Amino acid sequence: MARKLQSDKWLFLATLALVCASVVMVYSASALVALERFQQPYLFVTRQMMWAAVGVAVMSIVMRIDYRAYRNDKMIWALLAVVGVMLVAVLFARPINGTRRWFGIGGFGIQPSELAKMAAILFTALMLERRRTRINELQYSLLPVAMIVGTIVGLILLEPDFGTSVSLMAVIGVMIFAAGITYRYLFGAAMLALPALYVIVMQADYRRRRLMTFMDPWADPLGDGFQIIQSLIAVGTGGVFGKGLMQGVQKLFYLPEPFTDFIYAVISEETGLIGASFVLLCFCVIAWRGLRTAMRAPDAFGAFLALGITMMLVLQALFNISVVLGLVPTKGIPLPLVSNGGSSMLINLAAVGVLLNISQHQQVETGAA
To answer: Which of 133, 160, 259, 268, by CA, is between 20 and 30 Å from 279?
Structure first.
């Protein structure tokens, strides 16, 4: 007997809660900065509201498109080609803060790496579905994934964007692990990756400084350690209930770009442990319902796609929050669905739309939630 298609309401509500929190907190964190720099206090929040509205509309459309339509070789290869062109083109764009991660179209900034993550997840899901029965035959099963994802990661590293590269490799690694690859291959890959990561980190002076700062931020409190120290002060002074919206101090030119990478510090200071825990809870709900959707997907493509999207959102959130709390070295990774950023908001909401559609088709037991 056919059942009525219904999206996961908990996943939908957690996503909407984060988007609403984004609009409120981007305004609180950016108003004075926008007034000082551009004499327009509503500049960033207006753009964020626009992208959030467009993103929610796109999510509403995408969640009604059968996810199996993406199991299309021509579409995925075309998407990979577009991503490749964009990742090369952005290398010739005007540098912003010493990096080339964005280029402007019609007055709006586009970050190709956000679309690249979804393209890599779609391609990997397709390959794993078709070749998972021979997953331990590396040349047959994983060589195409390694070539395509490796090229994407290499181009992102050239921007440079080390944080996004690492998070993308982690997402693809989880997908491959779920496909059933033997542990010895995973161990071997880790042993090969560690020296490569060491070389990448140590060859760049700013990455070496970030690592040293992570070990002891108080060694240079007014220099490299300033950012993380101010973040920890913001988190620590928020207490249980926070100082109140718009009442935070660290966003007043202490925290660099408080409405992007360090917006969680502003949330912690102004809404306290309660607000910070609420945001964390929303991501826990996304992880729970996303993994549940992956386990109950009707086919392997849907399972791998749901897993990849869930890990893309959750691991990025984990990295961002860990940076704010001083648990990992500083990396330029925004908090998904919350930090200021148009292309990030749009792609992430579209990805949630795909996840919601997969949840409509999940195999459920009678009486299950």
So the answer is: 160
Q: CB-based burial of residue 10 (10 Å sphere; 0-12 exposed, 13-18 middle, 19+ buried)?
A: middle
Instruction: Write down the pLDDT at residue 29.
Output: 92
Of 254, 243, 291, 320, nearest to 18 (Cα)? Answer: 320
Is 367 strand, coil or helix?
A: coil
pLDDT per position as a tens digit, 270-320 = 999 999 999 999 999 999 999 999 999 999 999 999 999 999 999 999 999
Beta bridge partners of 105: 108
Asked if 159 and 98 touch (Cβ cutoff 8 Å), the reply is: no
> Is 201 or 249 the better-scoring residue by pLDDT?
249
Q: Which of 22-26, 116-120, 165-169 has the lowest mean pLDDT?
A: 165-169
Sole residue written with tokens 């999207």 = 309
Q: Which of 273, 276, 236, 228 is nearest to 255 (CA)?
A: 228
Tokens of 223: 């220099």
pTM of the entire predicted model: 0.93
As a whole number of angstroms, the distance between CA 14 and CA 192 comes to 38
Nearest by Cα to 79 from 125, 146, 139: 125
Residue 105, C-beta contacts closer than 8 angstroms, at least 6 positions apart: none
Answer for the pair 118, 347: CB distance below 8 angstroms, yes or no.
yes
Q: What is the pLDDT at residue 105?
A: 64
DSSP SS3 for 250: coil
- Cβ(163)–Cβ(99) below 8 Å: no
Within 10 Å of residue 325's Cβ, how many Cβ atoms? 16
Q: Which residues of 169-203 are buried (b: 16+ CB within 10 A; e: fewer)?
A: bbbbbbbbebbebeeeeeeebeeeeeeeeeeeeee
d(CA 227, CA 259): 14
**Domain range annotation of the chain:** 9-360
pLDDT tens digits along 128-169: 999 888 888 888 888 999 999 999 999 999 988 888 998 999
Distance, CA of 269 to chain centre = 23
Provide the 8-state DSSP code for 102.
Answer: -
